[in-house]
Amino acid sequence: MKRLFLALLLSPLLFAAPAMAQLDGARVYWTLPKNMNILAVHAISGTVNATVTNLNRIEPSIDIDNQLYLLTFTHSQPLLGRSFMVTASLPAGVIKTDSPLPLASNDPFVHGLGDPSLGATINLFGAPGLMLREYVRYDLRTVAWLNVNATFPLGQYNAEEPLNIGSNQTKVRVGLPLVQAIGPWVAGDRTTLEVTPSWTWISDNNDNQGQTLAQDPLLAVESHLTRDITRNAALSLDYSYLRLGESTRTDNASGAMVGMTDATTSHLLGLTLNVKVNDNMSLFATHMQTVGDNEETPIALEGALFRATLTWSFHPVIERRRAFLD
């Protein structure tokens, strides 16, 4: 009975795993108890007409093969009486293309570390800071968060090439994640509607092939309708709206503007399957692709991505109890 109690206690915690700077994923903003830790490894693969790490160069006639890996760590520690989480992320990977790129070398292939990020999320409504014993009786209903995430320009970057994993830009994202439970909060029968509007400020890149790249903020609305299909598995129907702001390129030598890209919008549809592997481990599999004909915005994000995420969740109290039982 005690082992069953520990398994039931951990099971709702295995869904939280922030994944990408632009899109977080389903069930990321469920409440966690004090001192909960989540380590996650993400593998992202797909072909898009941009690099998915920065989205600063979108062109209609290119196909970029993105093979990326992301390591994230999340720690929950109440702050000012509210639930509070801190997440650190480190990306790496390989980006390549067979499409001709302007002013590129003969080998458009890059690999290395991407731009790391650090984020903080505090609850505004519906999720006070909870100890483990209080969390067991917690019934999620309506929850609102404030999320701030900063990305730092420390990744692989070559100013002479148009294709890079790093962006040479600082980014600050402010989001307002909202979670609404629909129906009973019982494992195997949980349904949620989750919506995250966000605004991302992007600094200028002053060293981009002899030019300065300036970008207006990125606006995004990410949404998920999630549903338990068993006690150990869940599905999520995903939709996201992205509006990439206008960008301009200025020649560093002359100061003259050499190019401008209008603001563009993109719509993405996706499906996420989550399976609990054991008391600590969970697997996410997500497919996302852009939809729409983009006739009004010929330079728009297009492509598809697959993301697999493996999470390891652990809590010191639970681990000590498990060790005692063993």
Which range best describes the helical content: under 10%, 10-25%, 25-40%, 40-55%, 55-70% or over 70%?
under 10%
Instruction: Name the quaternary structure.
Output: single chain
The radius of gyration is 21 Å
CATH class: Mainly Beta
CATH H level, superfamily name: monomeric porin ompg
Mean pLDDT: 85
CATH architecture classification:
Beta Barrel
Number of helices: 3
SSE order, one letter for each helix or strand: HEEEEEHEEEEEEEEEEEEEH
Distance between the termini: 13 Å
Strand fraction: over 45%
Secondary structure category: mainly beta
Largest sheet, described in full? 14 strands, antiparallel
Tally of DSSP β-strands: 18
Low-confidence stretches: 1-21
List the domain count as a whole number: 1
CATH fold-level assignment:
Porin
**Broad shape:** elongated
Walkthrough of the structure:
This protein is 7% helix and 50% strand. It is mostly beta strands and 326 residues long. It has a single domain, classed as Beta Barrel (Porin). Strand 2 and strand 3 (84-97) form a beta hairpin. The relative contact order is 0.19.
Write a concise keyword list for the protein shown above.
326 residues; mainly beta; Porin; 3 helices; disordered N terminus
Question: Strands, helices and their partners?
Answer:
Layout: H1 2-10, E1 37-48, E2 64-76, E3 84-97, E4 109-113, E5 117-125, H2 132-135, E6 142-151, E7 171-175, E8 178-181, E9 191-202, E10 205-208, E11 211-215, E12 218-230, E13 233-244, E14 247-251, E15 257-261, E16 264-276, E17 281-291, E18 303-314, H3 316-325
Antiparallel strand pairs: 1-2, 1-18, 2-3, 3-4, 3-5, 5-6, 6-7, 6-8, 7-9, 8-9, 9-12, 10-11, 11-14, 12-13, 13-16, 14-15, 16-17, 17-18
